[in-house]
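*** Fold description ***
***
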Amino acid sequence: MQVRSSHLFLIMMRKARFLIGVALAALCAGQSSHKSLAHFKPIEAYEVRPGILMLPRYAADGQICEIGLEKLHYSGGAIELEPSLTNAEVDEIADQLVSRDERGPKPTNLLEQDGSEFYGLSAVMSEEYQNISIDTYGSIKGTSPKGTIMLGNIAVATIKWCQRSCKTDPFTIMKN
């Protein structure tokens, strides 16, 4: 009886050593792949919709001060050379991230209301609220025969909190 139990004990010890060895090998293999990326600066990003990223920036007190929204160029093996957001997507995601109550009312002063800025073939459209501004950055397709500017695709949208100053580095991630 005692010989049999010591034999079982040896078999169990070998199995345990084997499993520990496999676990350590897997752990080391996982770390070695991340070591090759260690010299790159990580960024924080969330996929708020399939193919749409949200990149938050933080104020010194840890609150979000700005959110960038953009579509992925590469996802799941597919490549999109000119990904773009629609106004509807920007509005829906902004509603999801910042409630109407948190935004506050739109300004009543005409100088503080929504605006547009044009730079060559680029445009920035702003939607202003008491506490935040929502900006969309896109292209200009051209002008209509009547001279109206025709806007193209939205490349990036930002949501900025008016009373919060972001850290200077736009790619600083929040550290716990």
